[in-house]
Structures are given as structure tokens and as C-alpha cells.
Design a protein that fits this description.
The protein has eleven helices and 26 strands. Helix 1 packs parallel to helix 2. The radius of gyration is 58 Å and the shape is flat.
Length: about 500
């Protein structure tokens, strides 16, 4: 039997395969799936292809190695083969096709409609009935407008009360949590601060400000010319620390007692360089074996200036002032490490520990002012603002009158009297706690009281039912409407 062989491509789907099957004129159609590339059709695709082959008057066969396709084909009774040759020689199992049953058209649809829906009564077409129905529809629309179009905004001003109590508070480092009985944790704070102070130096000292200068005659002790380099050092025979150097290079002629005069300058500033005649004679280096030196004139120009210098007494006074300033106001020192509302326990402030102190300038150096930078540490106990607020809220909540609610951001608390700390490190004090409270108002209940009421009646109802500081304010939209809406969701209640 003739068979139309269709080689499928990897990109084919059931739509493109149907288009290829339309060209078939044989009683058998064999679809060959690609071998090496994945090409799967699900059961629904195969069913559609089988129906299309049946409409073309042909049977459908498959050549594939995909187990998924083979299982789907077996479920639909579509024969599958290993290759093209097996399909040509093998037997195709006849495929059964279910016939689609078609409904028979009704011979007379008009008669059927008449039997299903009988003719309406004549009174329904009467003009009075139609006008009455129209009037009812209009009234229904009007009632909807009355129910949903108007809206009202009710502003209430409840009467505020002041709630205040005084509670004893106990703070200890052994307490870990806040208790409503009045116990709060005592936290330890260690503050490390750096402070700086200065004062004017009281002592004076002479400081070398200018060096001396003069000249030295170098006399030859040999029969050879001698070269005197620039920077040759000549010392005083009385004080070896007073040294001069030659300003220029010079050459002493050959021959004993030949000499030359060379200018010299002191290596250090100060009046110590002003020497008398004949004191510069010691030559440093190997030239001392070949030359003799002497200053024919006194050296001059060395000068000392008086400048201020911090004395030992100044250092002691400045240190005492620094420590006194820190110890006289320890509260301020510790408060720098606390939060704005944290409470410091003054009796727990410990001794100030000096960590480091640095003087400027160092000892012995001149300066107009002496500066001391000191780093200190101090420890103290305190109660956090969060713990105090938690205790205050818990105490007020325990004594809150029924049907009242605390007003937001009105809580205040402050200590009464002094704080006392015993030998065990427990600090006690009394705390005054206050807040404003307002009546608990249910907006849905307010809307239920006034819905459908006239404006004047609604105001009277609210005055009688609620404790108000001022008369309620009711705004109705549109403004000419005089009744509160009958639907609660059109009523907005605002509590000021």
C-alpha cells in the first residue's frame, strides 16, 4: 500500500506537521522523527495529528526511538516502527475512530420557544402598570442617592484629663529588667575625656641668639706650603666646647714662621663665643702638627637674649588647676557620655583616673605659654531614659481609669527630691509621672448614634453620650443637606 513518508525537522510542531500532511494523497502517512535531536510530541499533539490523518482518509504511523512518544502512540493505537523499512514491510493495525454525534436541528424553533416561554399576561403591558414600575424605579434610584451621595465629617473634642502618680524607684546593678514594683537596672558608664589648659610662663632665661666672629693667624711650622681648607676647626684653649671654623680656604706659604690671617665664625650662638686675644690656639685634625694658630684680636658679636621659659613651679601650678577643674564638677564630666534623658547617680561617681598628661613645650625649652593636655577617665552609674519611660508607662497603665486611653506624646517623668545611694550601691528616689488621657471613643458607635438624624439632633446626641471639651463640629456635603447619611461608611469621625 502506498505510503507518504514525511521527514520531520527539529523545529517542527503539530501545526507545521499538519501542513505537511495536507499534501498527502496516500492511504498511509508515516512521520519520521529526527534521530539525534530531542523531538517529543505529547499525547494531545498525537491525538490531533491522528484526527487530521483520519479527516484526510489516511492512517498515521510513526518512526521514532523516543520512549515517551512510543508510550503516547500505544495509548492512541498508533503504530510505531524502528525504521522506514520496518514500516514498509510491517503490518499496520487498523485504527478505530469515534464518530462525532451531531445534534438534530429542531424542525420549528418558533413553536419550541412558544412552548417553553408562554405568552405574558396582557395586564403587564397596561400603561398604568408601566408608569407604576417606572415610578418605583425612580424612587429606588432616589433612595440610593440619599443613601450614598451625602457624606458627613464629625470632629470631636473629647475632654482631656491629667493622670499623675508618684512612685518609689530603686536602681541596682543586680537588677536586669524593669519591674512595675519600681526596680530598674543601674548601668555603669566609663567616660574617657581629654582636657587642655595653659598659663603664661613666669621665668626668664638667656638664650643664645647670635654667634661671634673674628680672625685667626695660621703660622707655618714646616718648609712646605700648607693648605687650610674652609671649615677648619679652631678651639678655645680654656673651654673646648667653644669652637670656630674658617670661613674661606687659604694657603700658608712654604717656610717656617710664614703666616696668613683667615676670618673665622663661632659654631654656636651666644656670648660664650666672645673670647680675648690669644685664646683660639687649638687646631683640630692633622693640621695641628704643621700649623700654629692664634687670634690677634678679640672675637666679638656673640649675643644672648632673655626669653620666657616655663618653670617647674609653672608645671606644678598648671597640673593642680587641671585636676581641680575636673574634680570640682564631675557631674558635667560624666554627663558628656550620657543621653539627653538618662539619669546620673551623683553619689556613684568614682575617683578621676589620670591616663596621660603631656606638657608643651618640654621641660627646659623656652616658650611664652605652658600647655598641659590631660586624658582622664571616670566611672559612674546611671539609669537609661528607656528604662525610666518603661516603668512610667507600666505604672500609669496599672492605674488608668476604665474607658480612657493615653494621649500620644504627653508622658512626662521627673525625680522628686535628691537621689540617695547606700553602701551596697543601690540608688533610690521618688519619680513623678504624668500624662494626659482622653475617653475611648468608638468611631463606629458614634456613626451608629447619629446616622439618619437631623444635624441639630445629632449634635445633642453626641453631647449627651460623650464627655466633650467643646461642642462637636459636623460638616455635611452637600452643605444644603440637613440630615446625617444613613450609611455608616459615609460618616467620617475625627477625634482631635
Amino acid at each position: 500500500m502506498k505510503t507518504q513518508i514525511i521527514q520531520l525537522e527539529p523545529h517542527d510542531d503539530h501545526i507545521s506537521i499538519r501542513d505537511k500532511m495536507n499534501w498527502s494523497k496516500t492511504p498511509r502517512i508515516l512521520l519520521i522523527f529526527p534521530r539525534r535531536k530531542r523531538f517529543d510530541l505529547d499525547t494531545l499533539d498525537l491525538k490531533l495529528l491522528q484526527r487530521h490523518a483520519h479527516n484526510l482518509g489516511a492512517e498515521l504511523g510513526l518512526v521514532t526511538k523516543s520512549l515517551k512518544v512510543i508510550r503516547s502512540a500505544e495509548a492512541l493505537a498508533i503504530p510505531t516502527f524502528a525504521d522506514n523499512l520496518a514500516a514498509q514491510r510491517g503490518t499496520w493495525i487498523p485504527q478505530k475512530h469515534n464518530k462525532v454525534k451531531r445534534r438534530r436541528s429542531h424542525p420549528d424553533l418558533r413553536e419550541a420557544r412558544t412552548s417553553v416561554r408562554p405568552q405574558e399576561a396582557k395586564w403587564r403591558d397596561h400603561i398604568v402598570v408601566r408608569l407604576g414600575s417606572l415610578l418605583l424605579v425612580g424612587l429606588a434610584l432616589l433612595s440610593l442617592l440619599v443613601a450614598f451621595i451625602p457624606s458627613a465629617r464629625i470632629t470631636l473634642y473629647p475632654e482631656r484629663r491629667q493622670q499623675s502618680i508618684t512612685i518609689p524607684v530603686r536602681a541596682s546593678s543586680d537588677v536586669q529588667h524593669v519591674f512595675i514594683a519600681g526596680s530598674v537596672p543601674a548601668h555603669t558608664l566609663r567616660v574617657v575625656l581629654t582636657d587642655e589648659r595653659s598659663l603664661t610662663a613666669s621665668a626668664q632665661t638667656a638664650v643664645p641668639s647670635q654667634g661671634a666672629s673674628g680672625s685667626v693667624i695660621f703660622r707655618n711650622l714646616t718648609d712646605q706650603p700648607i693648605r687650610v681648607p674652609k671649615g677648619t676647626i679652631v678651639r678655645s684653649i680654656e673651654d673646648a666646647s667653644i669652637r670656630f671654623e674658617t670661613d674661606f680656604e687659604a694657603i700658608v706659604n712654604a717656610g717656617v714662621d710664614e703666616d696668613i690671617e683667615v676670618p673665622v665664625s663661632a659654631l654656636s650662638f651666644g656670648e660664650s663665643g666672645n673670647l680675648d686675644v690669644g685664646l683660639l690656639q687649638a687646631i683640630e685634625g692633622e693640621l695641628r702638627f704643621s700649623l700654629a694658630a692664634n687670634n690677634p684680636e678679640p672675637t666679638s658679636g656673640g649675643r644672648n637674649d632673655l626669653v620666657r621659659v616655663p618653670s617647674l613651679r609653672d608645671r606644678e601650678d598648671l597640673r593642680e588647676q587641671m585636676i581641680f577643674g575636673l574634680t570640682t564638677d564631675p557631674d558635667k564630666l560624666v554627663a558628656e557620655g550620657l543621653g539627653a534623658s538618662d539619669m546620673l547617680f551623683p553619689d556613684t561617681i568614682g575617683e578621676i583616673e589620670i591616663l596621660d598628661e603631656t606638657y608643651s613645650p618640654p621641660e627646659g625649652e623656652p616658650a611664652d605659654r605652658l600647655t598641659l593636655e590631660m586624658q582622664v577617665a571616670v566611672e559612674a552609674q546611671y539609669a537609661t531614659a528607656a528604662d525610666q519611660e518603661m516603668l512610667a508607662r507600666a505604672a500609669l497603665a496599672a492605674s488608668l481609669p476604665p474607658s480612657y486611653t493615653p494621649e500620644a506624646d504627653t508622658l512626662t517623668y521627673a525625680p522628686l527630691g535628691d537621689l540617695e545611694t547606700d553602701t551596697l550601691g543601690v540608688t533610690t528616689w521618688k519619680m513623678r509621672v504624668e500624662q494626659k488621657i482622653i475617653p475611648t471613643i468608638s468611631t463606629s458607635q458614634v456613626a451608629g448614634w447619629v446616622q439618619g438624624q437631623k444635624l441639630e439632633n445629632a449634635q445633642e446626641i453626641l453631647k449627651n453620650e460623650l464627655e466633650l471639651q467643646n461642642a462637636p463640629k459636623i460638616e455635611i456635603i452637600p452643605s444644603w443637606w440637613k440630615w446625617i447619611p444613613i450609611t455608616p461608611f459615609r460618616i467620617e469621625v475625627v477625634v482631635e
